[in-house]
């Protein structure tokens, strides 16, 4: 049986057979949500791959906090004036669920993040009901050790979970967003986990966003299915810190006609990212996007590398340091050094919410295929996107205007 996604209808109209799978999570199945016709037109699902990780937990908590008026939408472009007329789904209309291979409940995960200073103290308690509701919609992912299911069986099972989520919550649509740990680039033809989930999203009729450096829809075996799916999809590897700065500084050097001789970097990070990126193969996948930004904006690849060090004591915080050696007028040697210190989850979460809303609206508007207009958010954007942040921002604003409903 082929592992590629088969053509499917929208998740709101697909067959009832997929609803026969058990509901996610322990205990009784969540009751179907009773909604009005107006609710059904506006409620949008966000299905997170890696739904109990730091980024996902921060996104779910942050969405609930902003929707309730407990915190301002700092870092969310979609809450800024240029996007006010796009008819994006309201934050209060987003319904969260997802896959994960760990079983730590979302409320406890949020409490751990609050203890580490990622989330404000007391916020998980204030939003306990929202976190518990999202946790009930998280189901076991895979493949786990010893799983003997074929690729197609895994894809079908994941797609069934996504479809059941949409039907159970009476949603207009759902966007699948990969925020799981970075995996090494595949060595053979087999689909890695990220590609199994991406194929499942297509089979379930769900738009797809890859916020990680993992392969996802970029696997050669999924190229034809992605082209034929009739769904919008975006990206690879969210741009949150060091590469964000590179996408600004690279064009600056080029526009000032300053020759960059070497550009070296170091990342110190802990948490799940630090552990997964301790694998050299996973780190190589992560660094590819950082190098692409320099190649695209400078027109050449300078000497130097990016080193990633796992420092568990840092938890969800990271430090990124860059050393840039460049030539000035008459060959004068100069150096620029930058240091970026921040919380990766807090940097990433608002971008995840932005992307989910923008891609959901693109789906509603009938847009299909890769969305290079969303390159602003990615280290490795879809073909056709510039790597320079100012040009990416202009493309994003043009995309926002395109999403405005026709009057």
UniProtKB/TrEMBL annotation:
Q: Which GO terms describe its molecular function?
A: inositol-3-phosphate synthase activity
Can you say what this protein is called?
Answer: Myo-inositol-1-phosphate synthase GAPDH-like domain-containing protein
GO BP terms in the entry: inositol biosynthetic process; phospholipid biosynthetic process
Which family does the record assign?
A: Belongs to the myo-inositol 1-phosphate synthase family.
Domain Myo-inositol-1-phosphate synthase GAPDH-like residues, every copy: 241-345
In terms of superkingdom, the source organism counts as Bacteria
Query: What is a single Pfam family found in this protein's UniProt entry?
Result: Inos-1-P_synth
Where are the annotated segments for Disordered?
Answer: 1-37
């Amino acid at each position: 049986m082929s592992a590629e996604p088969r053509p499917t209808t929208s998740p709101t109209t697909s067959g009832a057979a997929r609803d026969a799978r058990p509901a996610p999570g322990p205990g009784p199945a969540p009751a179907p949500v009773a909604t009005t016709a107006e609710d059904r037109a506006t409620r949008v699902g966000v299905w997170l791959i890696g739904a109990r990780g730091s980024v996902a937990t921060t996104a779910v908590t942050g969405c609930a906090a902003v929707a309730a008026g407990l915190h301002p939408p700092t870092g969310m472009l979609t809450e800024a004036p240029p996007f006010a007329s796009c008819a994006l789904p309201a934050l209060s209309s987003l319904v969260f669920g997802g896959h994960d291979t760990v079983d730590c409940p979302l409320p406890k995960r949020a409490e751990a993040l609050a203890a580490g200073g990622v989330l404000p103290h007391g916020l998980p308690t204030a939003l306990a009901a929202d976190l518990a509701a999202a946790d009930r919609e998280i189901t076991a992912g895979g493949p786990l050790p010893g799983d003997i299911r074929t690729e197609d069986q895994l894809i079908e099972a994941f797609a069934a979970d996504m479809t059941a989520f949409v039907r159970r919550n009476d949603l207009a649509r759902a966007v699948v967003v990969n925020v799981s740990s970075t995996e090494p680039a595949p060595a053979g033809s087999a689909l890695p986990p990220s590609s199994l989930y991406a194929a499942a999203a297509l089979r379930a009729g769900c738009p797809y966003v890859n916020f990680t450096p993992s392969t996802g829809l970029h696997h050669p075996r999924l190229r034809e299915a992605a082209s034929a799916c009739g769904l919008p999809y975006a990206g690879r590897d969210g741009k949150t810190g060091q590469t964000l700065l590179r996408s600004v500084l690279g064009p600056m050097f080029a526009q000032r006609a300053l020759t960059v001789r070497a550009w070296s970097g170091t990342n110190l990070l802990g948490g799940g990212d630090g552990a997964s990126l301790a694998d050299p193969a996973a780190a190589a996948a992560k660094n590819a996007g950082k190098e692409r930004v320099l190649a695209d904006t400078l027109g050449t690849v300078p000497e130097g590398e990016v080193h990633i060090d796992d420092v568990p004591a840092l938890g969800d915080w990271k430090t990124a340091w860059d050393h840039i050696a460049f030539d000035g007028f008459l060959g004068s040697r100069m150096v620029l050094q930058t240091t970026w210190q921040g919380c990766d989850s807090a940097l990433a979460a608002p971008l995840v919410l932005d992307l989910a809303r923008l891609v959901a609206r693109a789906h509603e508007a009938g847009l299909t295929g890769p969305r290079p207009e969303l390159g602003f958010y990615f280290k490795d954007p879809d073909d056709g996107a510039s790597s320079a942040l100012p040009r990416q921002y202009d493309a994003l604003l043009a995309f926002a205007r395109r999403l405005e409903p026709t009057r």
